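Input record (one chain):
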Amino acid sequence: MLQPVILSNTTRGRYFWQTVFNLDNSGNNASLKRTIEIERRATLTSKSFLTKAFDTKSIFKFGNKTSASLKFKGVGAENTTEFNMHLELASRLEEKLERTTETYSGYKETHIYEVGPNSKLALYRLHYESDGVVAETEILSTTKSADVFVDLNFTLEKELLGLEEILLVLRDTKPSQDNVAEWTTVRNSIVSSSHKPYDEAFGDLLDTLESITPGRANTAEWAEIRNTCSEIKTSRGTTDDQLLLRKLLTRFSVTIPGQDNKAEWAKIKEESDRLLSGISQIY
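The corresponding structure, as predicted from the sequence alone:
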């Protein structure tokens, strides 16, 4: 079984105060009242969070599996604060990774403030922000203090959807004649990579396929496969591996040998088509 690619990162959250009002009742012998309605609100943008925290711009889905899962690992040991909204929002990011944007609200209350004659009153509201998160808390104060920072530890586990499935089909490909030695090389490579992380196993597959140069039978078809693998390897690091796997599956799908191995390639095409139609991009 292939292993997920595990990335770790620490992002920083910030609590800060913003002015709700600043009432100046100087020179007025009557009191002044102000009514405000406070609603706890937050907007989480998973795509923005993943892009900033893990340089991951896309999430894919295949059946009930997604290409990435987020785990919140707690706050930095040196962080202490009386506020706790960062914990709630970090947990929501963990649970709602598949949603591009989520906005939610709660705790709605009306407050009435009175400023006496010849007096002043300022009111501040506590806000919170971090990668992909903006929030307004229900906490109000007539004084404001310095910003408070919290370090949030996350891990992101990434899979390459469809890679294991196509590797199984390739591993089980055993032609009776023509390209027998070449397919033995492919099978041995797949077995050797079977417990590696997804990204390494994908790289090994590309290297192996690019090295296949049969002396006879299906030479044109394998030349196209080698070209595709070379193009994919050039794009790794700048293009999501899931999209590059799609390119390889597309090459498999259109590979129709002119000589032997027709039945074997028909099975590879069938599985490639199934994966191409089943894997979708969430964002």
